[in-house]
Amino acid sequence: MEGIAPDLFLIDLALPGLDIGLVLPELRRQHRKAVIVTLAAVDDEATIRQALTSGSDGFVHKAMPRESVIAAIGRVLAGEFVIEREPGYALGVSDPEIVLTARQDDVLAMLTQGASNKEIARRLGISHLTVRLHVSALLRIFGVNRRKEVAAKARLPGTLAPNCADVNWPVAAGSHRSRRSPLA
What we know:
- The chain is of the alpha/beta class.
- It contains seven helices and four strands.
């Protein structure tokens, strides 16, 4: 089968001896066009961050129902960036307010305008991996699985802290807003 490149890699973080910090970057280097989806039994921020910065295109918690796992993999294959957390995991908008960092504000503003990760990275002068991490954080903060859902939830009245609620935020790399972040 030499010469045939795989389209998809499913990497289970429970594999004995697997060091995702070494394996995923090498896999990505050898198979730049392939989709890499990480499966894990834990979905803490550090694990997701390491998988994404190491080259994974998506993250799926192994406790998800089979249909959800299959659908998530299909969405990643279709070019969507997907993070599927453990069932029932969500910060949600039932919290009194969602407070974002200045950079999360910038990324959210561009998401609500329909910008792609590549466009956001270019406009903010940051790497696409950094954008992925911010999008991942926004997905978690808003308790959703898709970019479009983040934008929709951000528009709901009372969701964001008053100083975050305008979707036409200026995009300024050096903007300073003092906010606590749920990721801190």
